[in-house]
Amino acid sequence: MLPAEFGPLEALSFLIGFFGPISGALQLAVGSPYGRYASASFGPGLPGKLAWFVQELPCLLVPLYVVTCTPAQRLSLWPNRILLAIFITHYFQRSLIFPFLIRGGKPVPILVFLAAFIFCTVNGYLQSQYLSNYAVYSDNWIKDPRFITGCAMWLIGLVINIYSDHILRNLRKPGETGYKIPRGGLFEYVTAANFSGEIIEWFGYALASWSLEGIVFALFTTFTLSARAKQHHRWYLEKFEDYPKLRKIIIPFLY
Ligand SMILES: NC(=O)c1ccc[n+]([C@@H]2O[C@H](COP(=O)([O-])OP(=O)(O)OC[C@H]3O[C@@H](n4cnc5c(N)ncnc54)[C@H](OP(=O)(O)O)[C@@H]3O)[C@@H](O)[C@H]2O)c1
């Protein structure tokens, strides 16, 4: 039975909740087909910088549209403003900074690009429409431990994600395209430190927003990135004899 207030945003949430495990399972079965695993069977490759810039841009442009072209009456409330600022800050970095720092990144197959573009459009709409026109928080929500802890987790995750991507980037000298063993930061404990940061970020956001919309996004990210992290881990162990044996996949000391 559907919840009493089942509307378009709940439908989109269920859609993302449905496709998260499917995306994770597909990647576990056939691999994550971009970067070092890019495959021609997913279509011709687009230049990496251009693909990342365009595919992530909807997470900035769609919120901009929602904020300027809909009533966005809920943005008079501080919790809604802060949560939308959190989402936009991440995607400002991901679409306008990250792509232009990539060193020797591989082309992105067009089907992967399209999947990411569609996901960013749907999720950009879901999060911004929810926060701008639907989410109702009490005046005290910004003092609630869930909001404070969630915002702190998001910030810690963002720092881990950006710093880890910086470590990966600097493994290559300008013009290089090969791979080396990442060292330093959370990479001392896990293979996919950048993905660990991203997952912490979105669980923090989900906690702070205390919403279906937030948790399905965090779970989608977890399914997608943990499958890719597992593939990276196996790949490093096969490629580098001296790969640190105690390093876990994505959760320090555990997994
Ligand atoms: N929210 C989500 O669902 C989601 C989904 C996907 C990605 N992301 C985020 O997007 C960012 C990039 O993701 P990704 O899958 O491309 O990450 P990745 O596979 O770790 O690669 C990141 C960049 O570092 C390079 N690189 C990786 N390992 C390297 C090594 N050992 N030596 C030298 N260079 C190396 C890659 O080059 P190559 O391209 O040449 O391999 C690529 O340019 C991450 O911050 C991730 O968290 C988020």
TrEMBL record:
Its EC number is 1.3.1.22. The chain crosses the membrane at residues 12-30, 50-70, 108-126, 147-164, 202-225. This is 3-oxo-5-alpha-steroid 4-dehydrogenase. Converts testosterone into 5-alpha-dihydrotestosterone and progesterone or corticosterone into their corresponding 5-alpha-3-oxosteroids. It plays a central role in sexual differentiation and androgen physiology. It is found in: Endoplasmic reticulum membrane; Microsome membrane. GO terms for molecular function: 3-oxo-5-alpha-steroid 4-dehydrogenase (NADP+) activity. GO terms for biological process: androgen biosynthetic process; cell differentiation; sex differentiation. It is a multi-pass membrane protein. Residues 107-255 form the 3-oxo-5-alpha-steroid 4-dehydrogenase C-terminal domain. Belongs to the steroid 5-alpha reductase family. InterPro entries: 3-oxo-5-alpha-steroid_4-DH (IPR016636), 3-oxo-5_a-steroid_4-DH_C (IPR001104), SRD5A/TECR (IPR039357). It catalyses: 5alpha-pregnane-3,20-dione + NADP(+) = progesterone + NADPH + H(+); a 3-oxo-5alpha-steroid + NADP(+) = a 3-oxo-Delta(4)-steroid + NADPH + H(+); androst-4-ene-3,17-dione + NADPH + H(+) = 5alpha-androstan-3,17-dione + NADP(+); 17beta-hydroxy-5alpha-androstan-3-one + NADP(+) = testosterone + NADPH + H(+). It comes from Sarcophilus harrisii (Tasmanian devil).
